[in-house]
Specification:
heterodimer, A: four-stranded mixed β-sheet, 15 helices, B: three-stranded antiparallel β-sheet, 3 strands, globular
């Protein structure tokens, strides 16, 4: 039995708290910011070689094999370790990379690539068409845990190969040392963009033709991983690939990530110059940096490639009524929502976030209009009078949300928005894994937030699996609104089967109009990363496709000006 | 001996029951481990393939039986993962002529590495942190408790008791943050976080997390020791000891403290078991790669084999330390020896 604190004890505790606060004051607590560290200031703006770019993250990575499961964090390293046949320029257009050029024939059923000669892999070998075929077969082999394999089911021979009935993938043929052809059973307008997926990037011969967990990642990217470079659970260090095919690139000697570092130590280390960039600081820290004139111009907002919305189960009342869904789409105050986390969130009124090709800034999409929302409620048969609070949908609507800071906050904002039109949300907060299972089960969730990030730079990455009838399943569906519209299905299918960019754009635009009108989701916001950099980090610009691109970054650091490093280093 | 065997058998039963319960709960809770591995964007066919590869397509009862069958089994003495993949996730415990007793905790779904390796890498770090943390808790707690008891009612007693109240009230992350700001960032005496690469770096890295646990836990021991000793100091035999001319220090330490050790040892034993399960917050804040952070990530990712391994480590630690506590009780208190 613990004794109850006396008044004197409480006073002493208060005194001790004050003493702790006093002790911490000289050390600046967590509030004050140090000044940015100076650059070399030698007037030379030309990129120069050298230096290690040091980054950190709260999370950890589990895999660096491009054929295996990856996540956003691992992708930062994968895009530096492995180059693809194609790349995207600063306007988001597809450009040659390891492939020098290509021809699309047979109405989009055949893609013939000619590789650059003399491209050196990290193991010193020259990249050939055989490497491309071997890498693709390795990624799509039935024993490989490739999460993106089914994107390539249109390749001729895919079914036979992935069921183990054929030793090779007949749809990928080697036509010479530098020529490789992909043959599809039917046209695929997204195929070029799909080839930029990590799983399709050539890997060294040391990878063999089967996936193995013990392989040391090796490709043709601007950086390479040396033995011991990846201390699992702790850090990753990749070094410059000196024989990279683009002369002069990359500028950095190395890029180093420290994993599992809490946000407060990250900020301390960033201010002290032990980290060169700070990815996604807390909102409080964003505010501190924004309010400090010395840090002006040193923040970078990266591109939106994640869409979020309020998914409404179209099979569950009251959302089986399209007018109720329209009412919700009109009631959501997206500007208000974005204020919760302004550094990482931007209002979105349509399916495609700003960073994905096909985003149309002139398309109004869904609009916040409470009067219109009330009118939709009236049309639905549930008129609501905001003055008296009478009417609306009589029962509380369960809203399933996972337990994370932004989502639980945005759920409360939504709750207030919908209360204004007579819809009462009852929040059911749960763990991410449970939320994922419940929302993907038929009839289990009436309404929930739903997000999706772009796997590849093409509109089909969202249109195909979020809203098509074929994506509906009783368990594990990706169409969690259980939305079905034959007209929408037809538009999306036609867009996927054509290679004409203008035709595709028009078809997807029409599909987006249907979604915005019938509102299986009330689109709410796009999501992006926010980065603070030290002044000596140069050449870091948002890329329209790659969320975190440091391929052209260089360092202009005045080492004499560095403060004494924090004891212990990063390891 | 009979007592020990009975207790050991009971401990094995407890471990089995806890592990079975966790296995059941892990299978009942909604969530698809294969989906967690594949990622939210993976197609259904890809998730299904990964599910099969992970062996999750089998009925839960079959998975449960296989888990226990594989946990401890007889296999080849030399394990070569390339030539014999069926033992790739095993470690040989005891050699038996040409064969060996294997421990197999399976392969992590997420990290795709033998769980034995993951646990073996982290267990010594957790052990070091648990021992250092507990040592500091006892050092601070017993010392301040004895001083407070010996000066009961004085200003020193009030200050020590109040400070212990502060320690109990403050969450560990706050203590950790204060220590990081003052000792690491301000004075730069110790590493901010991390584990270090050399033994000396690792020793220095251990100080702040151990101190955090020490400060937090010491508060409980201060209160236990003070309250326990306050009661004991009023006993007749203490008066007798004083009357016989024993010095105040001898009375305090030899007579009162020794008798106050029973509840302290009980608490310390249970605390050690709990710390071996992982001081999750402290490990996370200080980037200390122990069992706690491994367990949290495993739960978040539904990584079944790692969850089971962490539960086994925790259950074994708790039952073993409680076995040790019982043995120590008998040593410290002759009455318990007689009753057992």
């Amino acid at each position: 039995m613990r004794s109850i604190p006396t008044r004197l004890e409480s006073f002493a505790v208060a005194l001790a708290c004050a003493a702790v606060a006093t002790v911490m004051l000289p050390f600046g607590c967590t509030g004050g910011l140090r000044a940015p560290l100076p650059d070399a200031d030698d007037g030379d703006t030309a990129p120069r070689r050298g230096g290690t770019l040091r980054l950190a993250s709260v999370n950890d990575i589990y895999n660096l094999d491009p054929a295996g499961p990856t996540d956003g964090l691992a992708s930062q390293a994968l895009t530096l370790l492995f180059d693809g046949l194609i790349d995207f320029d600063r306007t988001g257009q597809i450009i040659p990379n390891l492939a020098e050029h290509w021809q699309i024939e047979d109405e989009g059923r055949s893609y013939r690539f000619h590789l650059r000669a003399g491209v050196r892999m990290h193991d010193g070998g020259e990249l050939t068409a055989d490497d491309v075929k071997r890498s693709v077969e390795r990624a799509l082999h039935p024993t490989t845990p490739c999460p993106t394999a089914s994107n390539f089911e249109d390749l001729i021979g895919y079914q036979l190969y992935t069921t183990g009935s054929a030793p090779h993938l007949t749809g990928v043929t080697v036509d010479g040392r530098y020529d490789v052809t992909f043959q599809l059973a039917r046209p695929d307008g997204a195929f070029l963009a799909l080839l930029a997926l990590p799983s399709m990037r050539p890997v060294c011969a040391t990878a063999g033709d089967r996936y193995a967990d013990t392989w040391l990642p090796c490709g043709a990217g601007p950086f390479k991983l040396e033995p011991g470079g990846w201390a699992r659970g702790t850090s990753l260090r990749i070094v410059r690939h000196d024989t990279y095919f683009r002369p002069g690139l990359p500028y950095l000697d190395a890029v180093e990530w420290t994993y599992g570092m809490n946000v407060v130590p990250q900020r301390f280390r960033f201010e002290d110059g032990e980290l060169d960039m700070l990815l996604n600081p807390t909102q409080a820290d964003v505010g501190r940096f924004a309010a400090d004139a010395r840090w002006k111009g040193l923040s970078v907002t990266l591109v939106d490639n994640v869409v979020w919305g309020e998914a409404m189960n179209t099979r569950v009342a009251p959302f089986d009524n399209v007018e109720v869904r329209r009412a919700v789409a009109a009631a959501v105050d997206r500007e208000h929502l974005a204020m919760i986390k302004p550094a990482n969130v931007s209002p979105l009124t349509q399916l495609l976030p700003r960073g994905v090709p096909g985003f149309d800034p002139s398309f109004e999409g869904q609009r916040h209009d409470v009067a219109a929302a009330l009118e939709h409620m009236r049309k639905a048969g549930y008129p609501y009078d905001p003055a008296t609070g009478r009417g609306g949908w009589s029962r509380p609507i369960p809203y399933d949300v996972f337990d994370q800071g932004f989502e639980t906050s945005s759920a409360q904002v939504l709750q207030q928005d919908l209360a204004r039109i007579g819809l009462r949300l009852e929040l059911r907060i749960m763990a991410w894994t449970a939320w994922q299972a419940i929302t993907a089960r038929a009839g289990a969730s009436a309404m929930h937030p739903q997000g999706d990030s772009a796997d590849y730079a093409d509109p089909s990455t969202f249109f195909d699996h979020l809203f098509t009838t074929s994506a509906i399943r009783d368990e594990g569906t990706s169409n969690t609104a259980f939305y079905s519209n034959p007209r929408y299905d037809d538009l999306v299918a036609r867009a996927r089967r054509t290679v004409d960019a203008d035709v595709r754009r028009a078809l997807y635009h029409e599909a987006d109009e249907i979604l915005c009108d019938e509102a299986p989701w009330a689109f709410s916001h796009g999501q992006h990363d926010y980065v603070m950099r030290q002044p000596y980090v140069r050449g870091f610009e948002p890329h329209p496709v790659w969320p975190f691109d440091v391929r052209r970054v260089w360092l202009d650091r005045a080492d004499a000006a560095m403060p004494r490093p924090l004891s212990g280093g990063l390891r | 001996m009979r007592w020990f065997l009975r207790r050991a058998g009971w401990s094995i039963f407890v471990v089995w029951a806890v592990v079975s319960l966790v296995f059941t709960i892990n299978n009942l809770v909604p969530g698809d481990p294969a989906r967690m591995v594949a990622g939210a964007q993976a197609g259904p066919a890809d998730v299904a393939r990964i599910r099969d590869q992970l062996g999750l397509g089998r009925p839960p009862l079959v998975q449960y039986t296989l888990f226990w069958k594989r946990l401890v089994h007889v296999g080849p003495r030399d394990i070569d993962a390339r030539t014999d993949p069926s033992h790739a996730s095993c470690v040989a415990l005891v050699s038996l002529n040409r064969s060996a007793l294997h421990l197999d905790l399976g392969k992590s779904y997420q990290q795709r590495r033998p769980v034995v390796d993951l646990v073996a890498a982290r267990l010594p770090r957790t052990l070091a942190l648990a021992l250092a943390g507990l040592l500091l808790q006892l050092l601070f707690g017993v010392a301040t408790g004895v001083i407070a008891a010996s000066r009961r009612g004085s200003w020193l007693d009030r200050i020590l008791v109040s400070t212990s109240l502060l320690g109990v009230s403050a969450p560990t992350f706050l203590i950790a943050l204060v220590l990081q700001i003052v000792l690491a960032r301000g004075l730069r005496w110790l590493p901010l976080d991390g584990f270090g690469t050399t033994l000396s770096e690792q020793a220095r890295s251990l100080v702040l997390p151990a101190l955090t646990l020490g400060i937090y836990g010491a508060a409980y021991y201060t209160r236990i020791v003070r309250d326990e000793m306050a009661g004991l100091m009023a006993q007749d035999w203490i008066r007798t000891a004083r009357a016989k001319g024993a010095s105040p220090a001898r009375v305090l330490l030899r007579h009162a403290l020794r008798n106050a050790l029973v509840p302290i040892v009980t608490s310390a034993g249970l605390d050690f078991g709990a710390l071996m399960g992982g001081a999750v917050v402290t490990e996370t804040v200080f980037r200390w790669p122990g069992i706690g952070s491994l367990a949290v990530n495993a739960v978040l990712n539904r990584d079944g084999p790692v969850i089971m391994a962490c539960v086994i480590v925790s259950a074994v630690a708790v039952t073993a330390s409680s076995l040790l506590v019982d043995a120590l009780h008998a040593r410290l208190d002759p009455r318990m020896r007689a009753s057992s």
